[in-house]
Design goal:
The structure holds 2 protein chains of 2 kinds.
Chain A (H helix, E strand, L loop, with lengths): L5 H19 L2 H18 L9 H19 L15 H4 L4 H6 L2 H15 L4 H20 L4
Chain B lengths: L3 H13 L5 E6 L6 E6 L2 E6 L5 H11 L4 E3 L5 H11 L17 H10 L8 E2 H7 L6 H9 L12 E2 L12 H12 L1
Parallel strand pairs in B: 1-4, 5-6
Antiparallel strand pairs in B: 1-2, 2-3
The chains are: A mainly alpha, B alpha/beta.
Chain lengths: ~150, ~180
């Protein structure tokens, strides 16, 4: 079994990567994140095991790229207190495929931890914020706002 | 589908970073769309429609590199040259060819073919001899039928010693069409 041409991966998963980038970033950053995601994926692609979960792998890379972009746009380090920054080991793309191999629950937990770090709050607070956000979305949806 | 502008940007950045291992596009021809693929070393594959372009691309991903991207702009030059050739306005191709998909005697045969001038033909026997083994006529014919870069490496100019046209991957009619066009 060999890897498919990367073009097929772009066409099949491009829209999903757009959705991930849109979910995490302001519109002005989405194209950059999309391009960086696929360029990084292209670089690592020959080393991907042929039976890997490509969608999960790409989503993980997109998530990392989005965090990188958000982190770059943060105020200078001197202006903010010491924060639990994203684990630099996990920021390494080489771990992307490894992350994709984690069981879904563990992967979600790792992503949660990253989000918590990004928002400079605890994981519990991130979970609460996510729950509040979902509740608000439901309410808005019911009210027909979108 | 992915936005053309984003796709083009990805391809351009891949090329700049040396990650565009196999670039491809399609080019119209008198016998349907041709798949044209190139590595950084040159034109590596031209495939007829009957070969099934998706199958060919999967084969390239396995044989060369899975870093395969549709890159029309990067192959503009060869596309234009093929257009001119099919329009009767070009006799030779000014393009580097990467014959890494052919090995051994087959490679030796293909190396000889580009020396056969536009509008002329040579027999399989003559080509076998030129490639270094006059008795390997069948092997020479096999090399022609497995030519990874037909048209540009002109295997259509190799015919049987008795003057009949012989086989062609896209069918004898396509071969006849090319030879008629070149002799016009």
């Amino acid at each position: 079994m060999t890897l498919r041409p990367f073009e097929e991966v772009v066409n099949e998963h491009g829209p999903m990567v757009t959705r991930v980038c849109r979910a995490l970033l302001p519109a002005s950053e989405v194209d950059d994140a999309w391009s960086e995601t696929f360029l990084a994926a292209l670089r690592a692609y020959p080393r991907l095991r042929p039976n890997s979960n490509v969608a999960g792998w790409l989503a993980t890379i997109a998530h990392r790229k989005a965090i990188d972009i958000l982190r770059d746009r943060r105020p200078a380090a001197s202006e903010v207190p010491d924060l639990p920054v994203v684990d630099p080991d996990l920021a390494d793309l080489a771990l992307g495929p490894a992350l994709a191999e984690l069981p879904e629950k563990q992967r979600a937990a790792v992503v949660y931890r990253d989000v918590a770090a990004l928002l400079s709050c605890t994981e519990a607070a991130a979970r609460r914020s996510a729950a509040d956000g979902v509740a608000k979305l439901r309410r808005l949806h019911k009210e027909g706002v979108f | 589908m992915v936005l053309d502008s984003l796709h083009a940007r990805l391809v351009a950045e891949a090329e700049r970073e040396g990650l565009l291992d196999v670039a491809y596009r399609t080019v119209d021809s008198p016998f349907g769309p041709l798949l044209v693929a190139a590595t950084p070393r040159g034109l590596v594959r031209i495939a007829f429609e009957v070969e099934d372009h998706d199958v060919v691309l999967s084969g390239l991903a396995g044989a060369l590199s899975p870093r395969v991207l549709r890159a029309p702009a990067q192959l503009d030059d060869i596309a234009r040259q093929l257009d001119e050739y099919f329009g009767g306005q070009r006799r030779t191709f000014d393009v580097s060819v990467d014959l890494q998909l052919a090995r051994g005697f087959r490679r030796a045969v293909l190396d000889r073919l580009r020396a056969i001038p536009y509008g002329s033909t040579q027999s399989y026997a003559a080509v076998a001899a030129a490639a270094g083994n006059a008795r390997a006529v069948r092997a020479a014919a096999s090399a022609c039928s497995h030519n990874p870069v037909p048209i540009v490496v002109p295997c259509h100019r190799v015919v049987r010693s008795d003057g009949t046209i012989g086989q062609y991957l896209a069918g004898p009619a396509a071969k006849q069409l090319l030879l008629s066009m070149e002799s016009a």
